[in-house]
């Protein structure tokens, strides 16, 4: 088989990677579908750039993506690397050998300057990723509009400007790519949820309501 490919460990199936981007996950719309329940619907993607191949964790799962056992956000791959998507594992092959450090990760550019409203839009976009639930997809333009009480058209304009600022190319999963960049850069952080509990102070006593007594 010519070009990069992966071999799924559980099944032994060998799958060639697409010329540019190959998506992988548990959902119906991905290029490589894994059935393990620990894999998100859209978990990660393989990206080819000339002779190089790297894997990008899309931030859609708390289980994450690992290369040779190490958690990664975006990582250049070498021939023979083992990539784990949750509990599912695949070995990469067909990558030309070259003298470069396999530990290298693609460095992200510094975060662009953002307006207050753009920060609000990004916070709303990434809110599902920062919840305690498994992250399935970032918020839609409609959901962001409802959250911020603005029009959907205004949200779409903000998103277009944000795509340009973060250099998110056109194509599928554009909102997901943006959300992944934002979370990886630490621009949006989870807010801890404090559960509501009844008082546990042993000195706290319930005082019954005062009732009127009939004079004896």
Automatic annotation (TrEMBL):
Region (Disordered): 190-216
Stored InterPro entries: Cell_Proc_Reg/RNA_Proc, FHA_dom, Sig_transdc_resp-reg_C-effctor, SMAD_FHA_dom_sf, WH-like_DNA-bd_sf
Every FHA domain range: 22-72
UniProtKB keywords: Phosphoprotein
Record carries keyword Signal: no
PANTHER family: NUCLEAR INHIBITOR OF PROTEIN PHOSPHATASE-1
Protein name in UniProt: FHA domain-containing protein
Species this chain originates from: Microtetraspora fusca
Source species taxonomy: Bacteria, Bacillati, Actinomycetota, Actinomycetes, Streptosporangiales
């Amino acid at each position: 088989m010519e070009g990069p490919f992966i071999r799924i460990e559980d099944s032994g199936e060998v799958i060639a990677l697409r010329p540019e981007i190959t998506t992988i996950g548990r959902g119906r719309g991905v290029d490589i579908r894994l059935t393990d329940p620990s894999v998100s619907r859209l978990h990660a993607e393989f990206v080819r750039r000339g002779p190089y191949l790297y894997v990008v964790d899309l931030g859609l799962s708390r289980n994450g993506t690992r290369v040779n056992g190490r958690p990664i956000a975006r990582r250049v791959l070498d021939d023979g690397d083992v990539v784990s998507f949750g509990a599912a594992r695949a070995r990469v092959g067909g990558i030309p050998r070259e003298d470069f450090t396999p530990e290298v990760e693609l460095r992200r550019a510094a975060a662009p300057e953002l307006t207050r409203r753009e920060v609000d839009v990004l916070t709303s976009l990434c809110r599902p990723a920062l919840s305690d639930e498994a992250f399935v997809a970032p918020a839609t333009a409609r959901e962001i509009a409802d959250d911020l009480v603005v029009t959907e058209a205004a949200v779409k304009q903000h998103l277009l400007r944000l795509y340009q600022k973060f250099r998110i190319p056109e194509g599928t999963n554009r909102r997901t790519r943006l959300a992944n960049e934002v979370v990886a850069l630490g621009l949006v952080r989870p807010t801890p949820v404090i559960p509501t509990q009844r008082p546990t102070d042993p000195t706290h006593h319930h005082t019954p309501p005062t009732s009127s007594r009939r004079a004896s």
